[in-house]
Amino acid sequence: MQDTPNPAEILAAVARFLKDEAAPALSGHLAFQARVAANALEMMRRQIELAPAAEAAELERLKALLSQDGDLASLTAELSRRIAAGEANLATPGLADHLWATTLAKMAVDQPNYAAYRASLAGRPGGARDP
């Protein structure tokens, strides 16, 4: 079995084709749709490349924050319940850091070129990184 191209590389190649070849050759609504499709493929590439590690880190933070085991969905639901019930808030040790890290990880997948995201990374130790 061949190891390359992997799914992320295939998605990147198709996105490049749509952006660099197809969209410029099209006009109007079709050009717009080609750019939308390219952006969707790029988001899926980032999801494949970044989400597994980000979700593992999120799970570990939740386990520590809640002092219990579980899967990502159940622990997220428990944290949401505690926040809604007033049992946890931004004064809860580790909660603000968890929410910040989770938000940045999701932005890395969804909107890595968003100016506020880039600025927040530049202001953190280690500086900005390209997804």
Brief description of this entry?
Helices cover 73% and strands 0% of the residues.
Describe this structure in words.
The protein is an all-alpha fold and 131 residues long. The chain has one domain (7-122). The chain has helices at residues 7-25, 28-66, 72-84, 95-110, 115-122. Helix 1 packs antiparallel against helix 2 and helix 2 packs antiparallel against helix 4. The longest helix is centred in the middle third of the chain and has 39 residues, at 28-66. It is elongated and about 55 Å long. It starts with 6 loop residues before the first helix and ends in a 9-residue tail after the last helix. The model has no long low-confidence stretch (mean pLDDT 92).
Q: How far do the termini sit from each other? A: 28 Å
Quote the average pLDDT.
Answer: 92
Order of helical and strand elements: HHHHH
Give the total of domains. Answer: 1
In percent, how helical is the residue content? over 70%
- Beta-strand segment tally: 0
Strand content: under 5%
> Which class best fits the helix and strand makeup?
mainly alpha
Integer-rounded radius of gyration: 19 Å
Number of helices: 5
Low-pLDDT runs: none
The shape is: elongated
